[in-house]
Amino acid sequence: APTHAERADRNQRTELSSTKGAVWDDLKQVQVWTGDVELIRGSTRLAGERLEFRQDPDGYQYGSLVGAAGKPANYRTKRDGLPELFVGQADRIEFDGKADTIILVGNAVLRRTGMDGGVLDEIRGARIVYNNQLETYAVEGGQPSAGSDGRVRATLSPRGATGPATQRQTTTPSAPTSAPGGTPPEKGRP
Amino acid sequence: MRRGVWRDRLQNLAFLGALLAAAAWTGWLALREPRVRTGADAQPIASGVPDYIIENLTMTRLSTSGMLSTQFVAPRLTHYPAEDRAVVESPRVVSIGKQAASTQIASKTGEVLRGGEEIVLLGDVAIQRDLPAAPGARAPDPQRLSTQRLHLFPDTEIMRTSEPVSITQGPRVALAREGMQIDGGQRHIEFTGPTRMTVEASR
C-alpha cells in the first residue's frame, strides 16, 4: 500500500489560528500569523510561533513556519492506510502544497512512530526534505558547530517492525565530502 | 414682450441655482468648520439640540487629478453644535483606490466628528474591499468584513475597530476577536488578538 501522509488530508478544510492575530497583505496576498500558531488540515498539524501563509488561485497552500526561541516548530501527519504517524520538528518548517513537500530546516528531526508515539525510525540532519508524492525523503548534514558534528543520523527499525524499535540499526554516513553544506544528502524511502 | 419673459425666467433660474449652491456650500462649510455661536448676541445652544439638518446628503471628495476619491452619502445628517458632531442615518461610504483597494462601507448609523476628521460607523457595519491585482495575476477575491463599530480616518486611509470582526474572502472565513486595523496606505489588514480562519478545501 502506498506509504505516505494521509491522502484524504488534501480534501479537508484547513483550520488556522493564533493568539496574537494576523496581518494580511493586500497586494502580495500573504498572511503572517503570530503567537501560538496552529494549522490543522485533516490529520496534518503544524504548530509554531510565526507562520507566513499563502494560497494560490488554484487552492494550493504554501507556508513557512518558525518556532519560538528554544521551541522548535512542529509537524505531524498520519500515514495513509497505516496506523503510523510522521512527526517532525525543526527551527523552520516549509510546506509547498503543489509540490507536496515538507522541508524541515535547522536541527531537523523526522520520526516515524506508532499511533502510541513509539519511535520506529528517526532521521536527524540540518535539512530534511520529505516528498509526499514520491514518498521519499532527503536529509542533508550541516556545518559542524557547537553541540553538533554536522553529520546525518538515521535510526531505522528492522523491516516489518510495527512496534517500538527494539533492535536499532544506526547508519552514520562516512566523513563529510567536499559537497557544500557538509555531508551528501542521504536518500531513503520510509 | 415674449423675449423679456424668457429673460426673467432665465434670471430666476440662475438665481435659484446660486441659492442652492450657497446652501450646499454652507452645509459643507458647517460640516468642515463647525462654529458654535458664542458672543453676546448668540444664545448658547444646549447639548442635544441641532442647529441644522441636511437631507439626501452626498459629499464627494476628488483626488488631485479630479477623479472621484471618496464619496459619503446619507439620507439625513443632523448637526449638534454643542458637541461638534453630526449624526447620520444609513451612511454609505465609497472610496476608490488607484493602486489600493476600492472600498464600500454601509452601516445603520454614523457620526461625523471634528469636522469630518473622524467618522464613526455604528450597527451592522458591512465593508467590501475590492483588491487590485498584482502585476501578471488576476485580482484576488473581494474581502467582505462585518463588525458593529468602525472608526474611519479619511485623511490617513485608516479604518479601525476593537470589536470582533469577521472576514470572508473566497474560500477563507476568519474571525478576529479583538478587532482589526485596515491601512489603505500600507495596503494591509492587521487583525488583533486571538484570530481563527477556516479555508474550505477547493480541490
Question: What report would you give on this structure?
Answer:
The complex is a heterodimer of chains A (190) and B (203). Chain A has strands at residues 14-18, 22-25, 31-41, 44-55, 61-66, 73-78, 84-90, 92-96, 101-114, 119-131, 136-140, 153-156, 169-171, 186-188. Mean pLDDT of chain A is 80; it is low at 163-186. With 190 residues, chain A is mostly beta strands. Chain A starts with 13 loop residues before the first strand and ends with a strand. A six-stranded antiparallel beta barrel of chain A has the order 4-5-8-9-7-6. Chain B is α+β, with helices and mostly antiparallel strands. Helices cover 15% and strands 46% of the residues of chain B. Chain B contains one helix and 14 strands, in the order αββββββββββββββ. Chain B has one helix at residues 2-32, and strands at 52-62, 68-80, 85-89, 92-95, 102-106, 109-113, 118-130, 143-153, 158-161, 165-169, 172-176, 180-183, 188-191, 195-199. A six-stranded antiparallel β-barrel of chain B has the order 2-3-6-7-5-4. Chain B is globular, with a radius of gyration of 22 Å. Mean pLDDT of chain B is 81; it is low at 1-5, 9-26 and 33-37. Classes of the chains: A mainly beta (190), B alpha+beta (203). Chain B: Keywords: Cell inner membrane, Cell membrane, Membrane, Transmembrane, Transmembrane helix. Chain B: Pfam families: LptC (PF06835).
